[in-house]
Amino acid sequence: MAPSNLRSRANVTANNQHDSPKSSTEKPSSASKLTADEDEGPSRLFVVDILRVLAGLILLSITLSYFITGNSITWGYRPAFTRPARIKAWLRGPLNLTDAQLSLYNGTDPNLPILLAVNGTIYDVSAAPHYYGPGGMYGFFSGRDATRAFVTGCFDTDLNGDLRGVEEMFMSEDLSSGAEFTREEKRERKLRKERERRLAKKQVEETVRGWERMFDGGKDGKYFKVGKVWRGEGSGWEGWGEVKELCEKARAGRPGRTAEEVA
Ligand code: HEM
To answer: Which parts pass through the membrane (predicted)?
Structure first.
C-alpha cells in the first residue's frame, strides 16, 4: 500500500507542477484526481482481499475447533480473565498455608476451593472435582503436599512431600551382595554409584517439574498456582522425620544389575 500511495502523491505533485502557476486554493484538475483514484483502487481492493481471507481462516478455525473439541471454539484455550475462580484468587492474593491449614481444602467443604501442593507450591484444582474431590480418582492428593507419591506412585504409603532417598527408584539395584571386590573395584563402584545418584536425582526433579507444569496452567489451563505451603518458624512444621524406605512398588520397578554389570 505504501509504494502506491507514494506513487499517487508523486503524480499529484507532478500534475500540480505542470499546471503551475496556480493559486494554492485551486482544486486539482479532474484528470489528476482520476489518476490518484486509479492508483488507490487496487491497493484498497488488496486490503479488502486480505481481510476476507483472514475472516475465512478464522471462521474455518472456529468450525474445526468446535467439531474436533466438541465444545470449544478456541481449541480449548480460555484466557484467565474468563475464569471467575482465577479472578477471585488473583484478587485475594497469594495464600500461605501450613500443612494443617491446607488439609481443610480437600474438597469436603463445598465453600472452599480444592487445593493440593507439589513441592511446597499450592495449586487450585477445583476445576476437576471428579479427580480431586471426595471419592475422586485422585482425591487423596487434595489438601496435602504428596510430592513423594507423585513420583513413586505409592498412593497408600507416600502421601507426603518427603523426597529424600526417592531417587533410588531410578537407580539400579545392586544384586552383587556377597561378591568379593578389590580395592580398586570398590572405588570404581563407589564413583559409579555417586554418578548414578546424581542422574537419578535429576530424573526425580524432572518428574516433579512435569507435575508442576501440569498444575501451573498446563494442559488446558484449568488449574493454577495459588500460593505456598508455609513451613517457617511457628508453623508447626517439624520436618519429615527419619528417611523413609523406598515403597514396595517403587522398589519393584528398580532395574537390577549383577556383579558383572556393575563392575
Ligand atoms: C506415578 C504414578 C501416577 C500418578 C502420580 C498419577 C497421577 C494422575 C493424576 C494427578 C491424574 C489427573 C490428571 C488431571 O488432573 O488432569 C491422572 C489421570 C489419570 N491416570 Fe494416573 N497417575 C499415575 C499412574 C497411573 C497409572 C499406572 C494408570 C493406569 C494404569 C493411570 C491412569 C490414569 C488415567 C486413566 C487418568 C485419566 C486421564 C484423563 O482423563 O486425562 N495413572 N493420573
So the answer is: 50-68
